[in-house]
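A common beginner's mistake is to predict each chain separately and then try to dock the pieces by hand. The better habit, illustrated here, is to supply every component at once so that their relative placement is modeled jointly.
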Amino acid sequence: MKGSAVNGRWQSAKLLLQRFAFVMLVGAAFALMLLGKADTIVVERMRTVVVDAMAPVIRALSQPAGAIAEISDNVRDLANLRAENARLREDNEQLLRWRDMARKLEAENAQFQSLLDYVPPPQAHSFAIRVMGDTGGAFAHSLLVAAGSEGKVMKGMAVVSGDGLVGRVAQVGHRASRVVLITDITSRVPVVIENTRTRAILAGNNTEKPRLIYLPAGARVSPGDRVVTSGHAGAFPAGIPVGVVSSVDDQVIRVQPFMDRDRLEIVRVVDYGLSGILGSLDEEGRAAQAEALKAARERGKAQRLKDAQQPAADATEP
Amino acid sequence: MIIEKTFRQKFDLALRQTLPFVTAFIAALLMATQTHVPRLNSIMPMLSLGVVYFWSIHRPHLFGIGAAFVVGLLQDLVTGVPLGLGTMILLLTRAGVATQARLFLGKPFVMHWWGFILLAFAAAAVSWLLAAVALGVLAPIGQVTMSAILGIVMFPLTFGFCRMIERLLAEEP
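With all components supplied together, the output reads:
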């Protein structure tokens, strides 16, 4: 009798403890969400440590899917061999014509450069690394690559594939790094429309087709226009192919990126020696950023003032 | 007659009892791998949700809310989604499903599947709302829905795998 009473009390205490633990853990989950918003550096370090630790397991788990994909690619390639061969012959003829033209332009360019005493940009060096994970789903678009600070990867470096820009290195561990894709909702890439040189920002939206924003008023953009990096803000060097304009509505201009996310197995990390907008956010860096932001705001204010005065001056002119 | 278990038997039992956690842990890591399936790389099925759902019904004492929290946190950190998102979803799933476990225990698979369909869509809606709060913008709802649908389509596989593990748990060491 006494034993059952003790047992009952123990059971109710255990239930109470469980409920308390549940409330505590829900609170902790909320706290994590707030932490993710408030202190991105701590969260970034946590992610880096965990991804580094889990990298061998993720790589091992990725292998079966990679092997199956390789086999299916081989089968598909075999089936398309004849058509592929015809296409390559055609491409080859076209490329030979382009080669002749490029040689002529190269010689001409060298002459002009020597005439102008032109200082060329620093040479970029690049290295290839294997993609080991594609993460995030609907809420984030990123890749995990199998190289970190040991492999000379640094935060802010541009990541490209044979097709075009893939993204930028956002977190670097010892053995693994995270690459934020240009389609990610947090991604902003300064770009230009190649033929009109119209500047814009390519804004990711977690869909396969990011949008062009902040175009100047009256800018002319049509489907099929090529989009390349502009080189502004020091984030990426100028001229990396990004994609083509796929649709132009009244409100939204969408871009189809050149990179094929489903076939990314090896990517190239390119070091252009740019500090970029992603330099480490230590105290000094933050102060410098704050200064730069203040200066930019003041410049913007002065520009707006000038713009406001300009129509008035135009109106007074006969 | 009481038969004392040897150290090896005890160790074997303890190891088996970690299997629910290990399966959920691996499911969370699988969500960070490349599928190489065209148009599917950006849509990952809700694998860990299916595993947590199974263990919350069949072995809740071996997969507590602490385990759900750890698996959710790992998933958030590895996949790069807003921190706390998966943690909250798996935590609520573990707590909510365990209280309704008697509705599913001993019932045919179809009943489990129906339950998971409801859960997957609810989880998609809640995670979409939480992501909107965390990111400050609305994520494409189509991809979240597709992720739930893929999770539902793959649920028979998840269920079968977990059932196999459960049989290992039931075997006498």
